[in-house]
Design goal:
Blueprint lengths: L12 E5 L1 E2 L2 E2 L1 H17 L3 E7 L6 H6 L4 E6 L8 H15 L3 E5 L2 H14 L3 E5 L1 E4 L6 E7 L4 E5 L7 E5 L16 E4 L31 E5 L9 H11 L2 E4 L1 H5 L20 E5 L5 H4 L7 E6 L6 H4 L2 E4 L2 H16 L1
Parallel strand pairs: 1-4, 1-6, 4-5, 5-12, 6-11, 7-11, 13-14, 13-15, 15-16, 16-17
Antiparallel strand pairs: 2-3, 8-9, 9-10
Helix pairs in contact: 3-4, 5-9
The structure holds flavin-adenine dinucleotide.
GO biological process, one term: fatty acid beta-oxidation using acyl-CoA dehydrogenase
Family: Belongs to the ETF alpha-subunit/FixB family.
Protein name: Acryloyl-CoA reductase electron transfer subunit beta
């Protein structure tokens, strides 16, 4: 059992700034927004941690999104993400500067890195949090996430070890506004890396062509569920999405029926989305679906059952048969938008 580190002077909130090829994953900015609130509640500094090669140009962006400080480690070995050197860099920074909270995006990279870092540090890690708050009395991080198949929300505390580590999926937290002229402190840390310790060699990077869907970045999503009834009926949703410049989405039932591929699934075991407008069409509103879309700005539900739970989270509800409602909406939007 690792030694108790809760009362040994760990202070400050850190966000790991995930970048690939110099492009920052938007979830890192979202986490800076959440981290700012936590740091203010604790009365401590918010810092971003930037690892890579040739990434110093991103430092001003990290300040602009709310960090007071940036820890920057640059090295050719960090040029491509590989677990061992990234974990070593982050672990060393944590041991040296001792933050009380460390947040990472629940992307594939963040999930890989957070597990390794938490293990090396012997601390706890709460994955896929949907809310992060501070208990003003104990100063502990309250890490809330769905548990037991999404049927309860559990709040998890890491009382005895530091840092308190959590991951959050893209789009769960709102995007903070960017403050152009905001400046902070830069702490450049030199570490000696050698290529052999990376253990993995990057031979070639192949850009993914025809990248399926960026549901988590879509501004308008037209999602269908079991109520759509068939693959052919999804044409109706496709037409609506086409008129609005939106993206299709699906409930798990629609994916399991084979009407859309799995990358379109919204929800607990799919993607978390936060569009400006989310159409839930023939979707009942199971909790596992709701956790993936209920923070959308506007939710339009179309369902022939007026008691469907989706109406509880809907901004606008239309009770009716989707086969009549959806074409009527498409025609009306087409008329308005042309
Ligand atoms: P149903 O619940 O069958 O709802 C269909 C709706 O369509 C009904 O409300 C019905 O009134 C309406 N309808 C029918 N005909 C029409 C019509 N002609 N016009 C208008 N409305 C009509 N689900 C997800 O979506 N995403 C997840 O990530 C996810 N993860 C899960 C993880 C776990 C561990 C578990 C246990 C479940 C998960 N599920 C997930 C499944 C979830 O519990 C529900 O089973 C699923 O969301 C139901 O999909 P649905 O709303 O499309 O279907």
């Amino acid at each position: 059992m690792p030694a108790d580190t809760a009362n040994t002077g760990y202070r400050g909130v850190w966000v790991f700034i995930e970048q690939v090829g110099g492009e920052v994953a938007p979830v890192s900015w979202e986490l800076l927004g959440a981290g700012r609130q936590l740091a203010d509640a604790l009365g401590v500094e918010l810092a971003g941690v930037l690892l890579g090669q040739g990434v110093a140009g991103l430092v001003t962006e990290v300040w602009a999104y709310g960090a007071d400080k940036v820890y920057l480690v640059e090295d050719p070995v960090l040029g491509f993400y590989r677990t061992a050197p990234y974990a070593r860099a982050l672990v060393r920074l944590v041991k040296q500067y001792q933050p009380e909270i460390l947040l990472l995006g629940a992307t594939s990279l963040g999930r890989d890195l957070s597990g390794a870092v938490a293990t090396f540090l012997g601390t706890g890690l709460t994955a896929d949090c949907t809310s992060l708050t501070i208990d003003p009395e104990t100063r502990l991080l309250e890490q809330t996430r769905p548990a037991f198949g999404g049927n309860v929300m559990a709040t998890i505390l890491c009382r005895r070890h530091r840092p308190q580590m959590a991951t959050v999926r893209p789009r769960v937290m709102p995007m903070p506004s960017r403050q152009e002229d905001r400046r902070g402190e830069l702490v450049r840390v030199d570490m000696a890396f050698n290529e052999a310790e990376a253990r993995v060699e990057v031979i070639e990077v192949i850009e993914e062509k025809n990248k399926a869907v960026y549901l988590d970045r879509a501004e308008i999503i037209v999602a269908g569920g079991r109520g759509v009834g068939s693959k052919e009926n999804f044409r109706l949703l496709e037409e609506l999405a086409g008129v609005l410049g939106g993206t299709l989405g699906a409930s798990r039932a629609a994916v399991e029926a084979g009407w859309l591929p799995p990358e379109y699934q919204v929800g607990q075991t799919g993607t978390t989305v936060r569009p400006k407008v989310y159409f839930a069409i023939g979707i009942s509103g199971a909790v596992q679906h709701l956790v993936g879309m209920q923070t959308s700005d506007v939710i339009v539900a179309i369902n022939n059952d007026s008691q469907a739970p989706i109406f509880k989270v809907a901004t606008y509800g239309i009770v009716g048969d989707l086969r009549q409602v959806v074409p009527a909406l498409t025609a009306e939007f087409r008329r308005q938008l042309v």
